[in-house]
Amino acid sequence: MGLHRCWQITLLIVSFFTLSLVEASSHHDPESLIAIFRDLANKEIAKPRTGIVYNISLPANFTGMQVSVIRLRSASFWSRGVNHSFFNIPPRVRAMPNIMRLSIVYDNLGNWSSSYYNVPNYTMVAPVLGFMAYSSPLPALIGSTRMNFSIQGDPITIRFPQMRPQGKNETPICAKLGDGGSVQFFNMAKPFECITESQGHYALVVPSERVEFPSPRAESPAPEVHSHTLWWVLGFVIGFVGLILVILVLFLLVKLDKRRRIRKMEGNSERDLPFDTFWVGESKMPSASMIRTQPALENEQFIVS
Ligand SMILES: *[C@@H]1O[C@H](CO)[C@@H](O)[C@H](O)[C@H]1NC(C)=O
Ligand SMILES: *[C@@H]1O[C@H](CO)[C@@H](O)[C@H](O)[C@H]1NC(C)=O
Ligand SMILES: *[C@@H]1O[C@H](CO)[C@@H](O)[C@H](O)[C@H]1NC(C)=O
Ligand SMILES: *[C@@H]1O[C@H](CO)[C@@H](O)[C@H](O)[C@H]1NC(C)=O
Ligand SMILES: *[C@@H]1O[C@H](CO)[C@@H](O)[C@H](O)[C@H]1NC(C)=O
Ligand SMILES: *[C@@H]1O[C@H](CO)[C@@H](O)[C@H](O)[C@H]1NC(C)=O
């Protein structure tokens, strides 16, 4: 029974650790974030006006991200384009399917970038920036149809904010961050500028540095993403060691418990077994009570006399 119980507890602890590790290592889901932005925008802006940029205020636990939305007539979008946030959509971009109005949601994931997107073997050197176009059937600001662009003139330009220089003089590469962690790389058109023909999320990356021992002369601060990864690795190791310790302790407890029970049984047999065996076959109860009460009586007599 004790062994079974201990196994149950061990299993529970193992599954707890596994779950927390999976949760810790899994990234936040960008698709659900996009849906949250859309819902917030629709909730916050009751009577949206066409052609006005609205900043969406986000719940406190999203601090660090920036989201804005603009609704446009398709005709004006086609003839004038829209230059907002970090994206310049020039004229002669057609939104498909062909509808009256569209809304474009812009986001800047800021310090959350690496929580939502991860480019293996690369380090992001600018925040992840995204834009997404939707149908805008009145009176809703953002409808459910996601639009596609058909570029008939110049492509869309993404202008990344210039971040602090990296330790190495690597030229960043543009990365389009697709669904399910897929990444497409392409070169910058100009420093900190990428060119694209589609909506979505974009980042600037440089190849990750190999982990080196810091030399005292080159004081290049490790990129934030790196120290993040290091912490996770450390957490993993500590968690794993802790798990093994817990299992060891449990096994020890099981062993001790077993030994104690065996000893108890042995103890019982020393005290009770001969007693029982001696009286086997005869009426146990009276004899036992006789034996047990006798010393008491003797004692009483002893005390009295
Ligand atoms: C929206 O937010 C951006 C960035 O924080 C800011 O520069 C801009 O002034 C804001 N616009 C409005 C209309 O509040
Ligand atoms: C903020 O909290 C909401 C509700 O608890 C959650 O859905 C959302 O993912 C959180 N935001 C972040 C950035 O984790
Ligand atoms: C777009 O706006 C930025 C400032 O927000 C400006 O520097 C840039 O020249 C504009 N681009 C075009 C093509 O108008
Ligand atoms: C980003 O910065 C804000 C404060 O500016 C902070 O509240 C938030 O926790 C940070 N997010 C991450 C993922 O570090
Ligand atoms: C990252 O680099 C390692 C070693 O150079 C390689 O084995 C791995 O396939 C790379 N991962 C990706 C996603 O390219
Ligand atoms: C947009 O294009 C994708 C494939 O490129 C397609 O699957 C999707 O249906 C298109 N959406 C619309 C609204 O046309």
Primary descriptors:
single chain; alpha+beta; eight-stranded antiparallel sheet; four-stranded antiparallel sheet; 7 helices; 41% helix; disordered C terminus; binds 2-acetamido-2-deoxy-beta-D-glucopyranose
What does this structure look like?
- With 305 residues, the chain is α+β, with helices and mostly antiparallel strands.
- It is elongated and about 95 Å long.
- 41% of the residues lie in helices and 23% in strands.
- The protein contains seven helices and 14 strands.
- Strand 11 (173-177) and strand 12 form a beta hairpin.
- Strands 1, 2, 6, 7, 8, 11, 12 and 14 form an eight-stranded antiparallel β-sheet that branches.
- One 2-acetamido-2-deoxy-beta-D-glucopyranose (NAG) is lined by residues 63-64, 111-112, 115.
Task: Profile the largest sheet.
Answer: 8 strands, antiparallel
Strand content: 15-25%
How many helices? The count is: 7
**CA gyration radius, whole angstroms:** 36 Å
* SS class: alpha+beta
| Low-confidence regions | 212-225, 272-305
> What is the percent of helical residues?
40-55%
- SSE succession: HHEEHEEEEHEEEEEEEEHHH
User: What's the average pLDDT?
Assistant: 77
Listed once per kind, the bound small molecules are:
2-acetamido-2-deoxy-beta-D-glucopyranose
Write down how many β-strands occur, each being a DSSP E stretch of 2 or more residues: 14
- Distance, first to last CA: 52 Å
The backbone outline, from C-alpha atoms, is elongated
